[in-house]
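User: Hey, quick favor. My workstation is busy. Could you predict this chain's structure for me?
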Amino acid sequence: MQYYPYDEFLKDARTLFEKIDSQIGKPDAIIAIARGGLTLAHMLSLRWNLREVYSLNAISYDGNKQQELIIKNVPNINKDFKKVLIVDEIVDSGKSLHKIMEILREENADIKFYSAVVFQKQNAQIKADFFIREPQDWIDFFWERDMF
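Assistant: No problem, here it is.
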């Protein structure tokens, strides 16, 4: 298990912001995949001064064991948006991100969706458009450890 502290997260969030901003610019909205993507989505939205921040739920883990994927609370997105950033903390198997992107694209064919995460596993079935690290072990995020 690898502990991921706040100071590394802050550095990575800044790096991720620079990568995204230089390649696609400011998105019209951010959708955080709750719960893991909420902290990163908040930080990125502050950096862009972006108020269009939404969330949805992708539930598949019980502890560190992956179970059946449940996606709910998919937001209604303004049809005038051109680009929306989907944010999570990690792409593990890729099942959640793949399904979420599929749902959002089906419902919003004219919007370009991009994905951003801090951690991207090499063997996942989908790769995020933007990521910083490739984990070798289970990640113990500061928000999971430091609150207790």
